[in-house]
Structures are given as C-alpha cells and as structure tokens.
Q: What sequence folds into this?
C-alpha cells in the first residue's frame, strides 16, 4: 500500500510506501509547538515526488534530528529522527485522503531525550504508553 502526501500549497509532494500502523506524539518543545502527529517509516519507504528544493531544514539542540518544512507555506512534512536516524517521522495530516482515526496513538518522550549537557540519559527509555 502507498499513500501520496504534500504540504499545504502542494510545492512538496511525496509518497509513503508503508501502511501506517501507529501514530506518535512527542513532548519535546518543537513537536508540542507544531502539534505534531506522526507515523514512523524507514527511509526506504519515503519517496520524494517533487519539491525537494522547496524544503527547508531546521535543526536544534543536538543537531541530529532534521525537521523539514515547506519554505512557501511553512507546513512541517516530515523529519529524520534523532533516535533512529534511518527513519522518518511523517506528518500524518499531510497524507492525501488518509483516515487515521482508527490508529492507536502513542505518546513518546522527547523533552528529556533532547537535553544537551551533563544531564543526558545514558539510555533513551523509548516510547511510553499513552495515558
């Protein structure tokens, strides 16, 4: 199964070669502000169709995660994950005609994972159950 997706203005178009099975939220300061609802896919399952030149990249804190936005309409389309650099988190709301209402949503902890400095955890605890 595959799904097409885009930013709001259509400058960025992509195809997801995967069936989303779970959605995630994140409590890091960036995801909270952009109200992200994402699905995770391996990098081989995300194909750019057009508009790679319309993407702008935002990195913060450790600089490992790479967040991509359309430079024209500002929509967050996807990001390369920090904890799994060979995976993308894809904005589920960018998928065309996709009903996500039956998918489970898992809350992930990003706020403490994103710390930079002496208080970094040795091991990231991974996703936590939604409450």
A:
């Amino acid at each position: 199964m595959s799904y097409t997706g885009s930013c709001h203005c259509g400058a960025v178009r992509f195809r997801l070669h995967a069936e989303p099975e779970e959605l995630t939220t994140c409590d890091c300061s960036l995801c909270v502000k952009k109200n992200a609802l994402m699905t995770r896919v391996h990098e081989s399952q995300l194909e750019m169709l057009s508009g790679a030149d319309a993407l702008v990249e935002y990195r913060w804190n450790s600089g490992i995660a790479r967040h991509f936005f359309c430079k024209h309409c500002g929509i967050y389309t996807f990001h390369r994950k920090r904890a799994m650099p060979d995976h993308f988190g894809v904005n589920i709301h960018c998928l065309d005609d996709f009903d996500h209402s039956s998918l489970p949503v898992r809350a992930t902890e990003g706020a403490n994972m994103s710390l930079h400095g002496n208080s970094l955890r040795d091991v990231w605890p991974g996703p936590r159950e939604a409450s």
